[in-house]
Amino acid sequence: MRQTGYNSHPVKENVHHEISTLSIDLAKNVFQVAGFNHHHKREYNKRLNRAKLYAFMANIPPCRVVMEACYSSHYWGRVFTP
Questions:
Q1: How far is it, in rounded angstroms, from Cα 5 to Cα 76?
Q2: DSSP states of the chain as a string?
Q3: What is the spatial distance between Cα 76 and Cα 79, in angstroms, rounded to a whole number?
Q4: Going by fewer Cβ within 10 Å, which terminus of the chain is more open, N or C?
Q5: Hey, what's the torsion of the CAs at 47, 52, 57, 59, to 10 degrees?
Q6: Has residue 34 got a pLDDT over 90?
Q7: Using CA of residue 60, residue 62, residue 64, residue 68, what is the dihedral sign?
Q8: Contact, 39 vs 78, CB < 8 A?
Q9: Please, which domain of life does this record's source organism belong to (predicted)?
Q10: pTM of the prediction?
Q11: Is the predicted pLDDT of residue 28 greater than 80, yes or no?
Q12: Strand partners for 22
């Protein structure tokens, strides 16, 4: 396990395959991303800037992504849809 930084919890290495739901708290520059397994247990909680969010989403397997309903959620929904 490793620590990810500010306001986060220990993260198990290579847990991307265990994630069934990804929750994203949208903002202008810093995003909070939490990954949950199929038992609804949080596997990780990360703060990512805009550039790292793009890279992060490109490297995870397909899963359900949930985010708040706001103007920018439509933009991000289009960005994350293959």
A1: 24
A2: -B--STT---B-TT-GGG-SEEEEE--SSEEEEEEE-TTS-EEEEEEEEHHHHHHHHHTS-S-EEEE--SHHHHHHHHHH--
A3: 5
A4: C
A5: -120
A6: yes
A7: positive
A8: no
A9: Bacteria
A10: 0.71
A11: yes
A12: 35, 65
For residues 28-39, average pLDDT:
92
**pLDDT(75) > 90:** no
Look up residue 59 and give its two tokens.
């490297």
State the pairing for strand pair 64-67/42-49. Answer: unpaired
User: Residue 33 corresponds to which tokens in the numbers above?
Assistant: 């991303």
Tokens matching residue 63:
């899963």
Q: What is the pLDDT of residues 45-65, one digit of tens each?
A: 999 998 999 899 888 888 999
How confident is the model over 1-28, as a mean pLDDT?
66
